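// run 5 | inverse folding | seed 20
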């Protein structure tokens, strides 16, 4: 049954994902709760992605409301903003078109909204998969915060974000649409790393955040995806989003938000180790928030060392044992 005013809007930007779009469409059609709408935003795909979505729309519309928005290629941020602009759900969620969600995703979000009495935002755990759908090691997320049984405040979640216990990604949470509308929160158009200065703003304006100790999302790490590309050409974008987040922090000087800024600086510096542009632009920001994020930085460094050991040295040891 299609609901006139849906509980949840799922925005799906689509761009050249013909290899994966079938899995995404299947997980949406197989949802155990149909109280949601889907907004597909084709961002000027040049492969068969748009054709595949169009072919499946009649079937999907038998179960849920589904819209298709077409635009010229303007990037992920623009596509997400376009979807949000026509959303009608009480809550909104951004789903990347090469990933998948659990079949009970909408059902669980609905259940925990009732359980926590309509929280502003809900965060949930996730799993990482490779391009073949096989589970792989994840660096971010999986913090103890998901196991808590009470509603969280924004300080708790921002501090967890600063320690990489919660991902910065826009697909790692569901939020009330009124949060982003009332506070004029949008993705920075034409910029990579657009989640860096988006997610912390949503958490900051969320008074109650509900933890869900379930892996409701499967993030696909694949060759050519934004998070696994060579990012050496993206220096200006990295500086832009952090400077924007730092400007937001100066308007809202909250210690936990300062820790998030510091974490963003450290992760960016570690990604651009040989970039004088990045270092010169971000080092002053790092110094400005140093007192806020020192603990978070130590946690991040420990996590990074463990990740390197498990994925590099662990593999070397395994290879030697096999000889």
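// decoded
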């Amino acid at each position: 049954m299609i609901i006139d005013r849906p509980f949840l809007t799922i925005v799906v930007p689509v761009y050249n994902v013909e290899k994966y779009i079938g899995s995404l469409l299947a997980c949406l059609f197989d949802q155990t709760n149909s109280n949601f709408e889907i907004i597909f935003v084709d961002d000027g795909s040049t492969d068969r992605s748009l054709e595949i979505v169009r072919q499946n729309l009649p079937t999907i519309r038998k179960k849920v409301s589904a819209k298709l928005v077409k635009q010229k290629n303007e990037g992920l941020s623009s596509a997400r903003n376009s979807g949000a602009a026509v959303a009608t759900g009480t809550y909104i969620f951004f789903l990347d078109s090469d990933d998948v969600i659990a079949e009970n995703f909408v059902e669980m979000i609905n259940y925990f909204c009732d359980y926590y009495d309509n929280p502003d935002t809900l965060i949930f755990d996730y799993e990482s998969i490779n391009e073949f759908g096989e589970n792989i090691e994840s660096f971010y997320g999986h913090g103890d915060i998901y196991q808590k049984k009470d509603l969280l405040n924004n300080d708790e979640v921002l501090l967890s974000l600063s320690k990489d216990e919660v991902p910065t990604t826009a697909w790692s949470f569901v939020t009330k649409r009124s949060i982003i509308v009332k506070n004029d929160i949008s993705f920075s158009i034409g910029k990579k790393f657009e989640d860096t200065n988006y997610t912390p703003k949503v958490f900051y304006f969320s008074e109650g955040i509900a933890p869900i100790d379930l892996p409701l999302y499967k993030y696909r790490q694949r060759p050519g995806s934004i998070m696994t590309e060579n990012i050496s050409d993206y220096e200006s974008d990295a500086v832009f989003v952090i400077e924007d987040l730092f400007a937001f922090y100066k308007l809202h000087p909250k210690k936990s938000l300062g820790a998030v800024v510091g974490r963003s600086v450290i992760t960016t510096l570690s990604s651009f180790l040989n970039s004088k542009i990045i270092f010169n632009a971000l080092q002053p920001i790092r110094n400005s928030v140093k007192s806020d994020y020192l603990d978070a930085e130590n946690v991040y460094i420990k996590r990074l060392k463990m990740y390197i050991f498990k994925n590099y040295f662990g593999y070397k040891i395994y290879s030697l044992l096999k000889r």
